[in-house]
Structure formats: structure tokens, C-alpha cells
Amino acid sequence: MKQQTVTVADILKFKGSGVDTIRPNETVETLSRRLKQRQIGAMAVSDDGETLFGIVSERDVAYGVATH
Fold this sequence. Notes:
The chain has 68 residues and is an alpha+beta fold.
């Protein structure tokens, strides 16, 4: 059986190329609600939608809760 190669471009065609962002001064509660509402696992952190400060994920939230 031949294995099919899937590229990142293939995934973007399926899911779309939009990127959800959150400002660095937003609360973790706000982040969690947006992740749930949009059914996504991570968001880009940006003040202006152009400058990327980083990416925050569900795992980051879980680890933060466990730590604090």
C-alpha cells in the first residue's frame, strides 16, 4: 500500500488560512473562552495583528493552571 504525503498547504486548504489572535494583556479566562468558542487549540499573541509575540495553546493554559 502506497503512503500518501500530506503537506502543510493541503491542511491550510482544508481548514483555511485565517489566524486568530489575542492581545497579550487579555486574561487566561478570555483566552480559554475564545479557544472553546472557535473550537481551536491555540492563538497567536499580537497587539496589532501583525507583530507576533508568540503562540499560546491549550497545553499552556493547562500547565499554567497546574502551576499556579
